[in-house]
Every structure is written in C-alpha cells, then in structure tokens.
Amino acid sequence: MYNKKLFLFGAQVHQGQPNDGTDLAPQHLRTEGLKELMSNKFQQLIDCGNYFGTSPKEVKALEQFAHHFSQALYHSLSGNQHMGLVIGGDHSCAIGTLWGALRLNPDMKVIWVDAHADMNTLESSPSGNLHGMPLAFFLGLENKIFTNTPTLHPHQVVHIGLRDVDNAEKRFLKELDILHFSANDVHRFGINQVLQKCQKHLDPNHNSEFYLSFDTDALDPSLTPATGTPVANGLNIEQAQEIMNYFSSTGRLKILELVEFNPELGQTQEVERTVNSLMQVLSAVQSQYPASFPLQNPSQHIQLSH
Ligand SMILES: [Mn+2]
Predict the structure, then answer these.
(1) Is residue 11 in some structural domain?
(2) Closest CA to 8 of 36, 17, 194
(3) Total domain count, the chain
C-alpha cells in the first residue's frame, strides 16, 4: 500500500468574522493529537507551520495572508501526488486556499461542505463579514477587493449541507447553475446518492483533482457547538465521514481544508466535543495514491520509516 505525504498548514485567519479565537484552532488541534491521527495514515506528515496577515486592516491582512499562503501551497504541492491539509481559521482563509488550489490546477474541482453558501458580495451580505464571501471573489460576482483572483467556473463547484442561504445567494446559485445539496437533501436521499451526483458532475472522466473545504458548521451544532455561526439540523458524523472517504479514496483529493472551529466559543466540554467530532471526521480520510498512479520505482516514493 503506497501512502502519500501530508503537508499540514495552519491558516490563522480571524479577520473574516467578529469573534476572536478561530486563529487558535490550528494549534489547539495540534495539541489535541491532530498530527498523531494523520501521521498514522500517511507516509509522512510535514508540518509547514502557521500563516497569517499582520496588517491591522482586515482586508489588507487577508490580502497579505492569501498572497503568501497560495504560494506556499503551490510550492509544497505542485508537481507531486501529495496532499495538503489546511486548518483554519475562519472561512475567509479559503481566499488563500482557493487561490493556491487554482494555481495548482485551473480546473480544480471544489466541494464546499457548509451550512452557508459563502458567496455573498460586499453589497448583498447582510453581515458584511468576509467569511461569507470567499467564493464570490472567484466566481466573478465581486471584484472590488481581492482583484486578480483566478477564475472559478461555476460548474467546478458543488455545495453540500446548505441550510442558511441568503436571498441573493439563492439567486446566484440558480443563475450560475451551481449544483447544490441542502442538509435536508442529504438526510432525505442519503449521502451516497448525493456524492454520486457530485461525482458525475465534477468527475465524469475520473481524472479530476479536488479541493474539499469543510466548514465546522456543516455538522449539527449538537456535535460541533464551538463554531461562530451554528445552524440546526446539520450533517451527522457518518455523513461527514462518508464525504471525506469518498473524495480521498479517489487518490485525487489535493487539498482538504477544515475551518471555523473556534476553541474560545462555549464551555470546555463543548470545545472538547467539537474537537472529538472533527477528529472523527478526519479519521475517515484515505491516504492512498490513485489506482492508476505510475509507480515505476516504488522506493523513490516510499520511506519505510514505520
Ligand atoms: Mn463557511
């Protein structure tokens, strides 16, 4: 069995929403055994450290972060079959992650697992919080800030788990013809049927690469209370595990991102419960190369260290 290497990145972004604390998530999860959990699966885990913007101005800080972070992802992951794991941060870190993903592969397919659609514009957003907008900057909906972003075609993205979508976002989903499934769709039709539809849409020739962005609030708040914008009736652990397993077992999951865990929200027990749920979800990630990967000389790829 030939396992990939995993490159771990902390994306210490909190400027996309009003709560402090999302920037502490990467270190909190490291302390709670994230690296042990993942290094048991992968050939090797390389911790690339934490990334953040230093400007006191929110947009400027996110710009600094996105610029450096997309380059770091590109340099670590280009030209190889290995995988990146990004730990946010609030979801505005995806401005950097998506930028990096599209540098790696302009045809990268994006699976957005979230209670929210995260495609508001500066004008349409009821809150004005940037963590609810990352997709808008790449889909051509918003170009007043974060200019020069690469283009994401609407057919490159699917949403799973939606249940709190603003009116403008409903219109964008319809007008751009983006395939999307609510949490209710998942409960009603079953996660496997949803995943098969996503696969048919994103990966008809079985050769696509994937960037899976998983928002903690996709899960039910009873499982992950320590998050900034919880919404009732979310996904359960098994459904989330099935999503992880499904895309990673293709061998073509290039970047997995986990965002919006905030260890400063809620009581100790609620934070512990959230960590526990997220670790269970991550435990379903598969680390093998794709079946068709040409391993002419396996010793070049495999370190038999353990
Ligand atoms: Mn989100």
Answers:
(1) yes
(2) 36
(3) 1
Burial string for 232-254 (b: 16+ CB within 10 Å, else e) reads eebbbbebbbbbbebbbbbbbbb
What is the rounded distance in angstroms from the CA atom of residue 158 to the CA atom of residue 196?
Answer: 12
Q: How far is the CA of 159 from the centre of ligand 1 (A)?
A: 11
Encode pLDDT of 130-173 as tens digits: 999 999 999 999 999 998 999 999 999 999 999 999 999 999 99
Rounded to a whole number of angstroms, the distance between the first and last alpha carbons of the chain is: 13
Q: 58-75: per-residue pLDDT in tens?
A: 999 999 999 999 999 999
Asked whether residue 303 is domain-assigned, the answer is no
Amino acid type, 63: E
Between the CA of 131 and the centroid of ligand 1 the distance, in Å, is 6
Is position 306 within any domain? no
Write the CATH number for 252: 3.40.800.10
